[in-house]
Amino acid sequence: MCAILIRLCTCIGLLLISLSSFAAIEVHEFDNDVDRQRYQTFIDEMRCPKCPNQNLAGTNSPIAMDLRRELDFMIKDGRSDKEIVDFMVERYGEFILYRPRLSPATILLWGAPIALLLIGIVMLLLIVRKRRRVDVEESSVLSSVEQARLANLLNSSADKAAAEKSERNSSQEKK
Asked: Which of 73, 75, 68, 33 is nearest to 54 (CA)?
């Protein structure tokens, strides 16, 4: 009884695994390598409208298959890259492009990183400048102990200078 159950589970498991071999594989044949490369570029650079963050090449959703079939038809029909992109954008919006075009609607998308970088640089420069100014002000202000020590040093050096001067004068007088 147990052996029969194990065989039954094994057969069901093999059946389920083999069902994946019946998955449809899309084959698009082109007359030349240029068209094949254009097709590959399009399916790599266009986003699936249904699948989040997947290109047309990386998904088997029904809409992605339809779009790949449509791209195949348009390339074989002799349409230019601009015509194909314009058609896809008109039908699905700028979302379909991984790199949206520069337009009034996407100017913020393209300009925000540059603006944030410039703001960051300006803020960094202001912070560095302020810290330097604070460091200079702190180093120029002496505590009362430091001022007393400085006065002693200046007085002693002034006394030494006066003593040396008087020695020179006296030695010159002796000559």
From this structure: 68
